[in-house]
Every structure is written in C-alpha cells, then in structure tokens.
Write a structure and sequence with these properties.
Elements (H helix, E strand, L loop, with lengths): L1 H18 L3 H19 L1
Helix pairs in contact: 1-2
C-alpha cells in the first residue's frame, strides 16, 4: 500500500516539477511532495 502511495506521489511530483517554470517553484513542489510522503509514512 505504501509503495503504491509513494509511486503515485513520485509520479505526480515529476509532473509538477516538469510543469514548473522557475527553480523556486520546483523547490516548493519538491518540498510539498516530501511533506506528503512523510505524512503518508506516518
């Protein structure tokens, strides 16, 4: 179950990072994905 959630979040984050136009925006996206993964692990 956690692997599926992690894979989905990873795929989603890849799409978000690809859609970002700035490095700052990409950093925020990566941070939000990291928080989501951490929440899912808890």
């Amino acid at each position: 179950m956690i692997r599926t959630v992690f894979a989905t979040l990873l795929l989603g984050s890849s799409l978000l990072v690809a859609a970002c136009n700035t490095v700052e925006g990409a950093g925020r996206d990566v941070e939000s994905v990291g928080e989501a993964v951490q929440d899912a692990a808890d």
